Amino acid sequence: MNKSKNLLVLALGAALFGSGCGDKTATAPSTAETTSSAVASSALMSAATRDDDKFIGKPLVSHIYTADPSAHVFNDRVYIYPSNDIDSGITSTGEGDKFDMKDYHVFSIDKKAMEKSSLENGAEVTDHGAALKLEDIPWASRQLWAPDAAEKEGKFFLFFPAKDTDGIFRIGVATSDSPSGPFAAEPEPIKGSFSIDPAVFKDDDGSHYLYFGGIWGGQLQRWSSGSYVDEDKYPASNEPALTPKVARLSGDLLQFAEAPRDVQILDNAGNPLLGSDSNRRFFEGAWLHKFNGKYYFSYSTGDTHYIAYATGDSPYGPFTHQGIVLMPVMGWTTHHSIVEVDGKWFLFYHDSEISGGKTYLRNIKATELIHNEDGSIRTVDAYLN
Ligand code: FUB
What we know:
This protein is mainly beta.
């Protein structure tokens, strides 16, 4: 990454704990089901400082703020499950409080629009409206962070993190007969769940695995002892980094079928990545996809702003670090998903273009993802060179 880009990222990025950006507010109108084009001008677009030439792609959604896009093909259409960023007026800088989301919207795109140029220039995206609201989740108190979704036997499952009434992140499930919702939340979070950023992977044998975890505001560092401790405990710099978690889901997809296991991410000598290895170690935003029989585990490195990937031979890992999927984007956070649509692969990601760099007011984007002949992933740089 060139130095000026690095500085831009750092300057624009208020950390999960920080509020480095100014407090220009833009009100995101609530919507019923609407179809929008990413090129359409909107209140949000005009409120932000834009430079269309700077990025490889335009926001997919511009009438509300969206982030953390998890994309899947359901019922022959591409569905996107993002966070719905809002400016709730919170000024506190602690523990990611500014990420104060209160509902989820589901979006979809016709498979025919899944072309690199169409995605980057403004594909037609349908907003199916609010699919789950905080007030309808009995156990949750705040912060509806990055969700994901799965399908089994015609039923759809939305997995989401939220803080419970004790301020501890848990992972919940909500169900629907339609991929676009509305979703009805289970009365309690998944038993034994903790931390953030659930991502579901369905293997070829029909088993579903839930990957999750995130350090700093995501609280993974408070679970090292196996139960929650209200104190941040990080490994020493020469110790293995904290690992994301994985658990196979029960047949009804509502619970863990087993205790969560550590997902080991190794260097190419077979050693676990160290806590000090901030360019490569796991931070948050896990995702799993399978390509040519190999399992690809990808994730955000957080404070170094990469989407990295590692490969392995089992959904449980271990995974060996291979490289970078996505270079740093505008804004502090980076979060992605990878989906195959009719033989082509796509990367969904977010940046903060729409708010002129405010890290908690983001927009989703997408582009094509290329696996090279040798199975490596061609790194995407979301900035135009
Ligand atoms: O959207 C809130 C948090 O920011 C997500 O859970 C993280 O992955 C980061 O994108």
